[in-house]
């Protein structure tokens, strides 16, 4: 309730600030302030629910604040708007990985959580442009003529790249409410992701079996080295997979047919597993028991191998395999 009151206060205070400003200055300057407009540049995607929520909020702002103009750029199906989004990101020193992406002057927001969080932030940027002035970065990028290559290169001073600023990225997490994930430390974020992702049952059972084998070894040094190598190698595999998936998702995030294909695959997998549950309601089904027996046999052979280098290499390779 208090957050909604804050939005109403912002929508009322900004026009009052403009009215007060115009009453204290010369008539010519007052007219210039009244004629001043603030342009909100919204990069959005067709079918994006967060984009639709922000568009409704911006429309209500435009109706209450007539000096606010909304410029919309659909980027999922429009390649020109996608190119413009990349240019704006380069200008701001950002790698934009999702929509909605909103630019007001030189300030920007990524995503849209709710009217009470992201909406308040947008109103603050509008107020800043009205009271202090701002440079419209998107308009400047659009107005620049295209670069024409010249046959002879010219030496020019290298411009200093803009330092990317850290903007609050607020997500509405169940049980925790609106949370600024930009303030979360990397270890804490890793713990949250790991908890949500669960664990790899295959690797977990392989680790338990390996521990049962290592306990019987009389050489404690060998036991710790082989067990630690398996854990470190498993962690390295997850790190490689996460890094690869992150880069792949950043690359294909704006390709519509890829998102559709992934969604179709997810639905098909869900239907398959639900049908499997319907057919086999008596309990769990253990499949490929022979392959699991081979995995355990390899673990046993590696741990009992007298050559430590061979045993270590085998344990690491098995960690990558499971």
TrEMBL record:
Transmembrane segments: 188-211, 223-242, 248-272, 302-321
Domain of life per record: Bacteria
Record keywords, A-Z: Membrane, Transmembrane, Transmembrane helix
InterPro entries: Thioredoxin-like_sf (IPR036249)
This protein's record includes keyword Membrane: yes
Protein name: Thioredoxin domain-containing protein
Species: candidate division WWE3 bacterium GW2011_GWB1_44_4
